[in-house]
Amino acid sequence: MTPPEPGASPADSAKTRSPSSLSDFFRKIFIVAGVEVLKLRHDPSELIMRAIQPALWLVVFGEVFSRMHTIPTGDLPYVDFLAPGILAQSAMFVAIFGGMSIIWERDLGIVHKFLVSPTPRLALALGKSVAGGVRALSQALIVYLLAMIMGVHINWNPINLLVVIIVVVLGAMVFTSFSLIIALLVKTRERFLGIGQVLTMPFFFASSAIYPVSVMPSWLQVLARINPLTYQVDALRLLMINGGTGNHALWLDFVVLVSATLVLTIIAGKLYPRAAI
């Protein structure tokens, strides 16, 4: 045991004797995430309802625009081009309403219990974000099944599949963190739902999910290049589709997604005490 330094307070001495704070930090993150994921057991119908939207986009929108040949996708059939975008979109739609859980927890008095516990605020925010990423994986399964049925040329390389999972989780973490910030600022279910519904479509249409960035007007291209969803779609298109290509290097897509997750989660952690006000 390392003796305390001269003049050190008892608290400082306790810190020197404590076990790894980093491992404890991650343990608390996964506890919070586990609690959130277990909520699906009480309402599995949510996953079924979430399957409707990607099915409509792929089957209706994809088939119609495949016949029209109006969107330049190079050598890729339009449905192949669209499938990664719909995966990113459906994962975002799940994640963008993840902040609702904080409002419910505040109304039930659970937030106060979290805030008086020794759990760091950043761990609380990260736990919610990780849970949002895990919940979004259900959308990946749904979109892959639909894509198989529609004859999309999927890349089944195990490494690619693993990286696709990571990209889906990272992208969902970005929008879950963003959702937490909105929930902590507006505090009411009605305002939160209204803002969430207003923001989802701009994020979706100002990305490369359903058409290439190159066909957008210049002002929309600027928005697309600062939109994390664009980078998630770019990585998924490169990894998920045989013959798929990206507009950016894969490492850049990861840097943007990881950086956005960290920045937004830190902001959410700083704002977390507002949930009790």
Q: Which helices and strands, and how do they pair?
A:
Layout: H1 10-17, H2 21-38, H3 45-68, H4 78-95, H5 100-108, H6 110-116, H7 121-149, H8 158-186, H9 189-205, H10 218-225, H11 228-240, H12 250-271
What does this structure look like?
The chain has twelve helices and no strands. The protein has 277 residues and is mainly alpha-helical. Helix 2 (21-38) packs across helix 7 and helix 3 (45-68) crosses helix 7. The longest helix has 29 residues, at 121-149.
Give a quick account of the main beta sheet: strands, pairing sense, barrel closure: none
Q: Based on CA inertia axes, which overall geometry fits?
A: elongated
**SS element count, helices:** 12
* Rg calc: 21 Å
Summed up, the domain count is: 1
> Average pLDDT value?
81
In terms of DSSP E residues, the strand content is under 5%
How do you describe this structure in short?
With 277 residues, the protein is an all-alpha fold. The chain has helices at 10-17, 21-38, 45-68, 78-95, 100-108, 110-116, 121-149, 158-186, 189-205, 218-225, 228-240, 250-271.
Tags for this entry?
73% helix, mainly alpha, 277 residues, disordered N terminus, single chain
